[in-house]
Amino acid sequence: MSNDVRPESLERITTPEAARSFIDDQVKEIKEQVKDGKVLLALSGGVDSSVCAALISRAIGKNLTCVHVNHGLLRKGEPEQVCKVFGEQFDVNLVYVDAVDRFLDALAGVSDPETKRKIIGSIFIDVFAEEAAKIEGVSFLGQGTIYPDILESKDGIKAHHNVGGLPEEVKLELVEPLKLLFKDEVRVVGAALGLPDEMVNRQPFPGPGLGVRCTGAITRDRLEALRESDAILREEFKNAGLDKKVWQYFTVVPDMKATGVKDGKRAFEWVCIIRAVNTKDAMSATIERVDWELLEKISYRITHEVKGINRCLYDLTAKPTGTIELE
Ligand code: XMP
């Protein structure tokens, strides 16, 4: 596609029929663009990259190679889900890179949030470029760019390519089949492609992942406590139907300990913060008034099931003054 402007004639995709017709058109376009060339795609497991991968795979099958980089900052079960859906269900060439040690070693002792983000972003590009160099004959890069990315890059709000830009020497032509779609349309297309509901309707998750929720200098044990507490929160929100209602919810485990008592003994352990917010555009946000009994249950489970946490707090701060993430 050469045009970056959404034509007036493109109706909002809200139905499976409209999604199927979009998919048919894109499959044709991708085939025309790529012919028998090879496409590489960084698959995070997020909505955009997953739908993009499923769509390109529908068009060119095994000529698509997806690279899933596990940086150790993903939520519980995410790398496994990506491997299951794309390795088995979609049968793409999937390269799984376990880069956990590389990321966590580089992040050890680093407490400044923006430095943490830079380290995560730059190692990600290095790892992806290394994998790209190993695959012969690749001339295309698949990207899950969506229309708001294009609009925001025009307005100078953020850089267009969310992968962060590959090094100059990696010269690949872009394949961006979702670039004229809004997020809600991407979800409808994803469902029509057969992606699982929890992948298509996922809440937003930042690129640096749990790295910005294990605030301060990340340690492996605190990161693990964070991952487990987040999994409990997600499970309880799902059981209560809040996963469909609340825009974004997660736990944070700061570099801070509090005195408590466990099994009749003094326990000096971490504090877990629960955050649940609603917003339209993430520029401002309000607090979800979570049912008190549910909060108590989540707090009980986290403090009794997660090693190293003895206390839970609920974040009552709207945006502004707080941002959604704590770092
Ligand atoms: P804040 O914390 O700025 O977050 O209120 C607004 C939205 O953006 C997400 N977020 C990020 N996403 N890289 C991302 O890809 C980041 O570094 C980043 N920081 C925040 C946040 O989860 C929320 O949805």
What would you say about this model in short?
The protein has 10 helices and 10 strands. The chain is an alpha/beta fold and 327 residues long. β7 and β8 form a beta hairpin.
Write the layout of secondary structure elements.
Blueprint: H1 16-34, E1 38-42, H2 47-60, E2 64-70, H3 78-89, E3 93-98, H4 100-107, H5 113-134, E4 138-142, H6 147-154, E5 173-175, H7 183-192, H8 197-200, H9 220-239, E6 248-252, E7 257-262, E8 265-278, E9 286-287, H10 292-305, E10 309-314
Parallel strand pairs: 1-2, 1-4, 2-3, 4-5, 8-10
Antiparallel strand pairs: 6-8, 7-8, 8-9
Helix pairs in contact: 1-2, 1-7, 2-7, 4-5, 9-10
The structure holds xanthosine-5'-monophosphate (XMP).
Characterise the protein shown here.
The chain is α/β, with parallel strands linked by helices and 327 residues long. Helix content is 40%, strand content 18%. The protein has ten helices and ten strands. The chain has helices spanning 16-34, 47-60, 78-89, 100-107, 113-134, 147-154, 183-192, 197-200, 220-239, 292-305; strands at residues 38-42, 64-70, 93-98, 138-142, 173-175, 248-252, 257-262, 265-278, 286-287, 309-314. The strands form two sheets. Strands 3-2-1-4-5 form a five-stranded parallel sheet, sandwiched between helices. Helix 6 (147-154) links the parallel strand 4 (138-142) and strand 5. Helix 4 (100-107) packs antiparallel against helix 5. The longest helix has 22 residues, at 113-134. The chain is globular and about 70 Å long. It starts with 15 loop residues before the first helix and ends in a 13-residue tail after the last strand. The relative contact order is 0.13. The mean pLDDT is 94. It binds xanthosine-5'-monophosphate.
